[in-house]
Design a protein that fits this description.
Elements lengths: L7 H7 L9 H6 L9 H6 L6 H20 L20 H12 L7 H34 L11 H9 L1 H39 L10 H15 L9 H24 L16 H18 L6 H5 L11 H30 L9 H8 L6 H38 L5 H21 L7 H24 L6 H31 L10
């Protein structure tokens, strides 16, 4: 996979689009202090009524000349790749994609973090992580057009522009591909398991509930996901993302409202779980922080989503992108916070480690809730998993097609594009069947992906924007970037220690 993005830096740094930046005219027209002032400027300063039409005409001419002087040609290769093939996005599309990628199965396990952190530290950690990741999201949106004439439409490209080709690739390549591919594998597991739960809930005792194995449910899910994956580019799946966003908000709301509206199970406790040693307790806390960090994944898709938007001097892409992100994260907060707090209130330390809230509903309230409601909730989880698969797989499709377009200097034919997407679906399916215990590694996934969300954007801002030393932005970003990297190391260590000491059920090629 690393070979597929070997030349990505040259593309991301030289890839340009017809966008105009507000600071561009001043940089080009006044870069030489000895250049004499244009006579048009003196004429434009005239304030008499007679000169007003002339002033307006000259002002318009200056703006036009400035724009023409800063228009750069779009890299043809960008128009052949799925992420930047279409640049007709808007704030609504951005909100749909952000919601679809920001809410998902990871929200169902958020109450598990509270079992280790308790009420106070659980809520504090959730609030701090939400504010922190929203700030770094704003940084990425601003950095998308940080260099005049260039748009960084891929996270890896921005990383290499900030840290250099080798270091940037080393820091961002594995986490971005791991997060994209690993999330798709996890979605196959969650979607297949939930599809099985949906079948059992609908059928009940009227049909043979064991007619299909877990392996076959995974296969059904992958087949549907691969069919949807034939949509050509990121803009074309905006409708799919809208459906995913609606189903995600719906099942999150249904899950926590049904949980708090029913009688608590016997033996509910809110005391932090007792550990055999202090090291085990520390690692349990770190694993809980990793679960919270994983809940706010999606930063590796922000630049890609913004890359689907048109941009010019009057309407830079960062404006509609930030509008869409603000709206979507308001809804995300309204889903994740009640899910974490309400789920922990309803089940406390009894929440199942495997499946989270969905398993808790099935275990404790199967006879208290209408079968239709339970089935509908499961169906919404399946639909959301299918739609999230599309947006997380798009960077992988982009990387696969980049190699071909680089060698052939032309777009992928339809049959090759179809074959590449089927190949990725088969590969993700194979990993999900071969390593079915990966869904139990949410804390480890969160630790590995944390730098993409909380650390790298701060450090990239310093490298690209170069704020003056010891100013507020310089201190803030250095502090958050350093803390994010340290926290990532601790989370990975804690997750590995927890796995080594407590263990997980490892079974190869035996999805259950």
């Amino acid at each position: 996979m690393s070979q597929l993005v070997e030349n990505k830096n040259s593309r991301s740094q030289s890839s340009t689009s017809p966008i105009i930046f507000p600071n561009a005219p001043s940089q080009s027209l006044h870069s030489n202090p000895e250049t004499p002032e244009s006579p048009f400027v003196a004429v434009a300063r005239m304030m008499t009524p007679l000169a007003s039409p002339v002033k307006k005409a000259i002002s318009g001419m200056q703006t036009c000349l400035a724009e023409v002087g800063h228009i750069t040609k779009l890299d043809p290769q960008d128009s052949w790749l799925p992420i930047t093939e279409s640049r007709n996005g808007n704030a609504c599309y951005a909100a749909f994609h952000t919601l679809s990628s920001g809410i998902g199965f990871q929200s169902l396990v958020l109450p598990l973090a509270f079992t280790a952190l308790g009420w106070v530290w659980g809520i504090v950690s959730l609030c701090l992580c939400f504010i922190w990741q929203l700030y770094t999201l704003w940084l990425l949106i601003q950095l998308h057009e940080s260099v005049p004439g260039t748009r960084y439409s891929r996270y890896l490209g921005l990383s290499m522009a900030a840290f250099g080709e080798k270091l940037g690739k080393f820091l961002a390549l594995f986490p971005t591909l791991y997060l994209a591919g690993g999330t798709c594998v996890s979605l196959i597991m969650i979607g297949g398991d939930t599809l099985k739960i949906f079948f059992h809930t609908v059928c009940g005792t009227t049909c043979n509930a064991n007619s299909l194995s877990t392996f076959e449910w995974y296969l059904i899910f992958v087949c549907i996901a691969v069919i949807l994956a034939q949509l050509p580019n990121l803009n074309s799946i905006a409708g799919v993302s809208l459906i995913g966003a609606i189903t995600a908000v719906t099942y999150c709301t249904l899950t926590w409202t049904m949980s708090i509206s029913k009688t608590k199970p016997l033996g509910v406790s809110y005391e932090p779980m007792e550990m055999q040693s202090e090291m085990s307790k520390i690692c349990s806390v770190l694993n809980a922080l990793g679960i919270i960090a994983f809940a706010f994944r999606g930063h590796n898709l922000v630049l890609e989503i913004q890359g689907t938007m048109p941009s010019n001097l009057k309407s830079p892409s960062q404006v509609p992108m930030w509008k869409g992100v603000k709206f979507s994260y308001l809804i995300i907060a309204c889903c994740l916070f009640p899910m974490a707090i309400g789920g922990y209130w309803a089940y406390g330390n009894l929440i199942p480690a495997n499946g989270g809230m969905l398993s808790a509903l099935d275990k404790y309230h199967r006879n208290d809730i209408s079968r239709a409601i339970l089935g509908l909730t499961s169906l919404f989880v399946v639909i959301n998993s299918l739609t999230s698969f599309q947006i997380y797989a798009m960077p992988v499709f982009d990387n696969l097609e980049f190699r071909y377009t680089s060698n052939k200097n032309g777009p992928c034919p339809w049959w090759l594009r179809t074959g590449l997407r089927i190949f990725f679906g088969c590969l993700a399916f194979f990993i999900s069947v071969a390593l079915p215990f990966l869904k139990d590694l949410a804390g480890l996934l969160g630790g590995i992906a944390l730098p993409l969300t909380l650390a790298y954007p701060c450090l990239m801002w310093i490298r690209i924007k170069k704020p003056q030393k010891y100013t507020g932005m310089w201190c803030l970003n250095w502090s958050l970037g350093s803390l994010g990297m340290l926290l990532s190391v601790l989370l990975v260590f804690g997750a590995i220690w927890t796995i080594a000491t407590q263990g997980i059920e490892v079974h190869f090629f035996k999805p259950q």
